[in-house]
Amino acid sequence: MIGVLTAASVSMVFTLFLTPVFAKAFRRLKLGQFYRADTPTTHIVKRGTPSMGGIIFILAAVIGYFVGHWVGGDPISGSALLVIGMMGGLAAVGFLDDFLKVSRQNSLGLPGVWKIVGAVIVSIIFGVLSLTYRDSFGHTPASTALSFVRELPIDPRVAFGATVGGIIFVIWVILITTSVSNAVNLTDGLDGLAAGSSIFAIGSYVIICFWQAQQSCYSLTTPAENLFKCYTVSRPLDLAVIAASIVGALIGFLWWNTSPAQITMGDTGSFGLGGALAALAILSRTELLLVLIGGLFLVITGQVIIQRIYFKSTRGKRIWRASPLHHHFEMKGWAEVTIVVRFWIISGLFVAAGVGTFYLEWLYRIK
């Protein structure tokens, strides 16, 4: 618990006090935000706002994690390093996109296909390592079995063998990672929207993973009669530490990212957060629970997909005034702060439903 609190505190203090310093440096380097021509006109005044703020809170999260371990005296785990690797790898893809926008002085960054290629490469590395690395108990951080709030009796490795099952698992990781990272990226359109929503989503894994640590099947104090309700997650407490560190970093960053934002996270931040969220879901064996925990991201992505399909099939007609969904409400005249706060509320309700579902499943098992 000391490690969790320390990691969150250190990362929050880092971003809270150093974000203005980074923002000033980014402005001097002319690392400003660009917007497309079809973006709502209210965003024109934001042109030139320092971007790539994801660098700050990702750096803070990593520092907070290691300081938390140093204070708590706990060993560093491969599971948390995998989360950091996924977050950093996806952030690198986003950074390249941001850098191209700045260097070309327009909003056209890395082509979409290359973003997907980058996410696929990072996902493959993550998937392979999560199935080959073993912790002190001899267990791998990930499982090839499909999971909801815990592993389900659907395991391609059992059905098709280790090799084919492993390949199917890696494909599943690619699907989750590319979907979540792009969903968070689509949500990053208003000041503080993606950061606040990610605090709720990633914060849920502080609760989930801490609970899993208290009910771990690998604990020496777990009696045999409790094996039906315990969790087989590898090093869940360390997953809670890295999740808390990310949340703390986002809280400090959000202080400067709310409207009017003094800095934006850019694709560096949104892709990095998507990677962290996907990794936490996979390693905590709660992949399908992301439908609830990341409910706001799912709604926004679904709206974009429906709008695009309808636009193409009707040759130019639209269901909503704009997409992603938050821009639709901007076009209707809603204030930016109003949209952001209401979307935060929606995100919080989705997360509450997800955490509640997780806990209710445990209550059902003990009865």
UniProtKB/TrEMBL annotation:
CDD domains reported for this sequence: GT_MraY
GO molecular function terms attached to this record: metal ion binding; phospho-N-acetylmuramoyl-pentapeptide-transferase activity
UniProt membrane topology term: Multi-pass membrane protein
Family, per entry: Belongs to the glycosyltransferase 4 family. MraY subfamily.
Major place of residence: membrane
Lineage: Bacteria, Bacillati, Actinomycetota, Actinomycetes, Micrococcales
Pathway given in the UniProt record: Cell wall biogenesis; peptidoglycan biosynthesis
One Pfam assignment: Glycos_transf_4
Binding of Mg(2+), residues: 185, 267
GO biological process: cell division; cell wall organization; peptidoglycan biosynthetic process; regulation of cell shape
Superkingdom of origin: Bacteria
InterPro entries: Glycosyl_transferase_4, PNAcMuramoyl-5peptid_Trfase, PNAcMuramoyl-5peptid_Trfase_CS
Localization in the cell: Cell membrane; Membrane
Organism: Lacisediminihabitans changchengi
Record field: transmembrane: 6-26, 52-72, 78-100, 112-133, 158-180, 192-213, 233-256, 289-311, 339-360
Annotated function: Catalyzes the initial step of the lipid cycle reactions in the biosynthesis of the cell wall peptidoglycan: transfers peptidoglycan precursor phospho-MurNAc-pentapeptide from UDP-MurNAc-pentapeptide onto the lipid carrier undecaprenyl phosphate, yielding undecaprenyl-pyrophosphoryl-MurNAc-pentapeptide, known as lipid I.
PROSITE patterns, per the entry: MRAY_1 (PS01347), MRAY_2 (PS01348)
EC number assigned by the record: 2.7.8.13
Keyword Ribosomal protein in annotation: no
GO cellular component: plasma membrane
Alphabetical UniProt keywords: Cell cycle, Cell division, Cell membrane, Cell shape, Cell wall biogenesis/degradation, Magnesium, Membrane, Metal-binding, Peptidoglycan synthesis, Transferase, Transmembrane, Transmembrane helix
Catalytic activities: UDP-N-acetyl-alpha-D-muramoyl-L-alanyl-gamma-D-glutamyl-meso-2,6-diaminopimeloyl-D-alanyl-D-alanine + di-trans,octa-cis-undecaprenyl phosphate = di-trans,octa-cis-undecaprenyl diphospho-N-acetyl-alpha-D-muramoyl-L-alanyl-D-glutamyl-meso-2,6-diaminopimeloyl-D-alanyl-D-alanine + UMP
Name of the protein: Phospho-N-acetylmuramoyl-pentapeptide-transferase
Cofactor dependency: Mg(2+)
